[in-house]
Amino acid sequence: MTKTLPDKQIAFCYEYIKALSVSCAAKAAGVTTMQGYNWLKQPDVMEFIDGLRAERQHRYEDLSFKVIDELAKLAMIDMQRLHNNNGDVLPIHKMDRDAAASIKDVKIRINDDGSYVYEYKLHDKVQALEKLARHLNLFAEDNRRKVDHTIDGDNLMDKLREIGLDY
């Protein structure tokens, strides 16, 4: 994206990336559909569009790693991280971020003595494990043999380490 395009061409390019429709992009840019088709023949416009595609692809790759990372956190949460050394449930603000992120719902009750009782409902760990295992293709051989699906914890941990998620 070396050459600067006019504002209407830039608007056209951004809309074209979103809609993948020349007529929608042209309408959004305030030009005719024919003008949009003509712009797509210009190397500088195509270079700009290619640059936008590359940026979008990079964002999607980053997002996919974040999604996998979040699933791994839910799948691998250690219940001890939700409690203090006495075994009492910690308030959310005293937990580390990963432990707090594993909580789906919170109920806080106040006792007669003014103390707080925290009740947490966690995200479904088994569901997170299954989604992660499917993404890592751990069920592929089981699917071919049509046997019962089980998650081998050691195998799952090895797969997580392979993609850089060390839990």
Provide a descriptive summary of the structure in words:
The chain has 167 residues and is mainly alpha-helical. It has 2 domains: 7-72; 76-162, no CATH class. 56% of the residues lie in helices and 9% in strands. The protein contains 8 helices and 2 strands, in the order H-H-H-H-H-E-E-H-H-H. The protein has helices at 7-19, 22-29, 33-40, 43-75, 97-101, 125-135, 140-145, 153-162; strands spanning 103-110, 116-122. Strands 1-2 form a two-stranded antiparallel sheet. A hairpin with a 5-residue loop joins strand 1 and strand 2. The longest helix has 33 residues, at 43-75. The mean pLDDT is 84.
Shape: elongated
The portion of residues assigned to helices is: 55-70%
Structural class given helices, strands, pairing? Answer: mainly alpha
SSE pattern: HHHHHEEHHH
What are the defining features of this structure?
167 residues; mainly alpha; 8 helices; 56% helix; elongated
Fold blueprint:
Elements: H1 7-19, H2 22-29, H3 33-40, H4 43-75, H5 97-101, E1 103-110, E2 116-122, H6 125-135, H7 140-145, H8 153-162
Antiparallel strand pairs: 1-2
